[in-house]
Protein 1
Amino acid sequence: MILCRTKEIINKHSKSVGIKLAMCLITYSLIIVCNLVNRQDGMWNGPYLFAGNWVLSIGRWAIRYLDCFLFGIHVNPIMTIGTLLLFVLGTEILIGIFRIAVGSWKDYLISMLFLCNMVVCISLSYLYTSAIYGLAFLIGMLCVKCIIDSAKRKCLLFVGSVCLALVMGLYQSYLGCIVLTVAIYLIVMIKGSCELGEISRFVLRVIIVGLAGLCLYEIILHLNLWFFKVSISAYNGADQISLQAILSNLLPSVKRTYAEFYKYLIGKSYSWNAFPNEVQKIIFGIFLIYYIILWGGTSFKSKMHRLLWILLGLLLPLAANITFVLAPQSAFLEQQTAPMALMVSMAVVLLLNVSLRKTIFPNAVIAALSVVLLYGTAYQTLIDQEAMREGTVASETMAQNIFQSLIESGCYSPEKRCALIGTPSNNPLFYVTPIYNKANLYARVGGPWWESALNSWSWGGIFHYRLGVNILTSYDEEYEELLKTEEVKKMPVYPCEGFIREINGIIVIRVS
């Protein structure tokens, strides 16, 4: 019976999964072929890495065990293809949740809007943690599926709770994907033939899974903290998360969820779409008008149904950015935008769901605008990948020439620490095309992180993992002190004579 059921599932989804994975491989072929990583942690950390106490201190207890399963090895193309497969499988569950025909044009359109988004591109550029993001998305969608199916099988409430705890233990930002999908599913229920009693029972199951999952996460986290003798870090205010902090910051946090929601969709915070902001405003303006007219203009089972529909529609930004409420001091980084990226697909899910009940014309308009969005989204990921490639080539060339100069000047020694002051992009020899400046900041390899020792980390990554050269970089404190000295400030920059100098026992190379 189980084998027959498994065979049936494979036969049903294999073609869809294969086509989506092939489309993803084409979209992200530059990352795979050129072994690209981002300018940040992707450059600093190599292909062999085990998660340690740092990730545990920020609440991500599950990463340590995933790295053990992977033997600490994170290499292309296996890791990238595996991560893409995890994301694809997550969209398969998502499509099933909303009862969209597997392998239909709507399936591919809705799925690829998410799979071609910047958030997947940056996830792949963190080669050493890419599988974490893909797994968090897949398990998050599985969590929602368990909540829905638990109406008939109560044991799935426990499975859903475990899934939620795992998502939180992998990457907390993907909690927003769970909450957003639940909110969209509720909107579909309200507009469908569901009675208030059925809706309330679903909400009750959501609350049970939510509370049980968060409690399970806290229990496992604190057991790990106790076992490994680690304290919660102050990073992004992780050590100050409490009910009191959430309540005291509630109004600013809620305001922030709506502000970030708007800025993301129009491309003001991050360039997730290659089209200008004005084009995105027009498309989402049309989406909003269609949503109000097509959904709001039709009949509801009761006034309560209509009230719930309005309330949930207004709360969607809060659902997508729920982590801002739970962790008021958290940042909003590119890799944390998965719920926002999913919101684009969810908008299409809602509009195509209702427009089929009307006429072909609204359906065609939404489909056409969605294809335009997909086109722009795919091109933005290509822009980011090309920026990573150009920056990597330029940085590697500069690093190779600098190393050659160190050898020729007799300054190189594997025992002596080196401090490379400045970044490749600020040097006049650094050449890239205009594409580079159209990319998101994470993709601008060779660009400055900020004027601090983190620039030294990036240089270390270029020498160690891109060139395979054994260079001992300076300590953070030494780097910071060198930045303040007048002698370093007056040094000529590479490739001018005197750009290499020994100061206080450290080989200083002035790049910019």
Protein 2
Amino acid sequence: MYKKNSSGWVKHVDFIILDLVCIQLAFYLSYVFRQGDWNPYVVPLYRNMAIFIVLADLIIIFIFEIYKSVLRRGYYKEFAVSIKQAIMLLLISSLYLITVQDGNSYSRVVLFSMVIVYGGITYSTRLLWKMVLKYRMKNNEDSSLVIITSSQIMEQVVCNIKEKNYNMYKISGVIVIDQDMCGTSIEGIPVLANADNAAEYLLQNWVDEVFINVDESALYPKELIERCSEMGLTVHLNLAKVSDSALGKQSIGKVGSYTVLTTSINVMTMRQAFIKRSIDILAGIVGCILTGIILVFIAPLIYISSPGPIFFSQERVGKNGKLFKMYKFRSMYMDAEERKAELMKENKMSNNLMFKMDFDPRIIGNKILPDGTKKTGIGQFIRSTSLDEFPQFLNVLAGQMSLVGFRPALKSEYEEYDYHHRARIAMKPGITGMWQVSGRSDITDFEEVVRLDTEYIRNWSIGLDFRILLKTVKTVLHRDGSM
């Protein structure tokens, strides 16, 4: 979903957020060093400058494309870019001080030392973050790319992508479409599938993007490309091989040294990705604080009603099939998973790709009395008020989830997905989403869930996220009020 290219924008967002932290740190240290005071934010002139430099830095970043090719830059070029950015910030900040009424009262020492400290800090931070990205890629924590190619050029293609990867992708493997080479490797990269089982592999495993480049003698994999688009995968086509089979929104980009036409279910600009991730980080911090406060009150109630862990963690399927541990306050008895099989016959959903029932006896405190009365307890309360979801702000802060997205599926459910079902996981999972605010108690058809989640991805915007969040608040308040 994130483009230009998908994993590239996400990394750029992290760089921008780190940059803004660096400018605030430089401002704070410079003020403390010169003025000997510990709180510049209570002084109106300095507080206004603290806000202005953030806006000015963002303008410089976007207008001058500071992070264009950031992963390709060496030490010297990175240093030159950092100094250039610091000088531009100095010029814009000086112009701002000239125009404000009390500008002459602002310490020039603070201004110049801030720029010098900022240049050094942001340069060091970028180098360190590049090292982090490289480490994450080597440890399977980065964007997963699968190369689809033919036997005649497979070594050439793999070598090209490996040598000019610039920490953009974890190359998960190769699919060779004109021979069965499963079980072998090319330049240390495993061959995962052939033409017959390629689509099935892409469906069942963590794959963010695919790069397709085949030689002239091989049949063009039109059907496989259409399957990839149906699954919501981002597809990079070597421009020499472009056909009319690609579906979705398109852009021109680079994979290795190849110029590619990239097709994705939706396109998110760097500015949009920055705003969405920034909102997630801020919400994650606030949510984690609230989680700690809520924990103090509900932990004793959970433990008294059902002795055991207060938190519940479970492996879920995230963006493009990547597995992660999702956290919640425990609202069910300890044997809930074991009892699920016997309750499947009461599943309200039209198939077993999602589980939901009206009155779940596995929830702490839920009982059906001899007279047929249904009794609820603390478990139903924290679920009805959505308090059990608060620990997921840890997942949001870690970047595994977003505020808005699809509800992460169980691995057992995901294994039953058809190709078009996979499109709903083409972005990060969320605490709330389109189908939850579209009558989650009434929807019993999983195909409708997929339709709503896919509609959200195709029509995504910051405004849509805010509308869903507002509807979520209304839905939760309505459920709480009707208890």
